[in-house]
Amino acid sequence: MSGKQHHYAARIRWTGNLGSGTSGYRDYSRDHEITMATKPDQMLAGSADKSFRGDPGRFNPEELLLAALSQCHLLSYLHACVLAGVRVVDYIDDATGTMVTEADGSGHFTEVVLKPQVVIADGSDLQAAEAAHQVAHRMCFIANSVNFPVRHQPRITVADPAV
Length: 163
Known about the structure:
23% of the residues lie in helices and 31% in strands.
């Protein structure tokens, strides 16, 4: 392995024992708490997806994977734009992901589509802003770590110079 290593630590604590542990499939909650070693005072409430008997008011692993891919692309894109001299003034991504479950209960993501809506400052190079998405995809640590396609459907507009 070459390159500089970075290490991360998370604690996932199951809080769903309803009194009899995992005595049956319907006898426990999927609720859990997520904390990061670097942010021990902040907790993220997690559960399973509603279709897997989870609490829909809590974040599930599939949503968090989608969010991680979108966040990573955003941060990589902003960096690529700085390098290209493109000034981003707004960025919103309405990302979607598709997962398939099999009869045996296993499953996998088949794709994620990132749909960033980017606004660049008047005077920034639109073509450079578009090319920065490819650079960002190549740089994104999370996208480089998954075994399914991460596609991009960016929409870039130029800010009104009067604003």
